[in-house]
Here is the input.
Amino acid sequence: MTRTLPIILLSLAAAFPVFAGDDNKSAICGEAEERYVDLFGGPSSEAEGVVVVTMYKYNFCPAEITVPAGTTVRWVNVDKRTSHSVLVKGSGIPESDRAFPEEVIEFTFLEPGPQDYLCGPHWETQNMIGMVTVE
Ligand SMILES: [Cu+2]
Here is the structure.
């Protein structure tokens, strides 16, 4: 019996990416950036007038950013099939519509301070949450 335990643990880790370590998360975000470049023809850091956060495999990439007040964040869904939303907690703005693959959601951050946000369909089951610190 005990010999099968490591296999069970491995398959649990595969089934629940929420338990994935930081290494796995940065690999996912690396993949997300590759998807972004394929779809939009250049790196996400070169998007004009906005700061891009990709949404991929139940992660926001990067999950935490710091921006000056007045910055528009553009969340870009680079997944192949999954749709995501953005809800900026405490903003008084309702949850966004779902963004399907290659669609975007934008939000302009005016209030200084840390602002938590989440993906409506995935924050609970996949821990899909992020934070924007506004300076
Ligand atoms: Cu999501």
Summary: Confidence is low (pLDDT under 50) at residues 4-17.
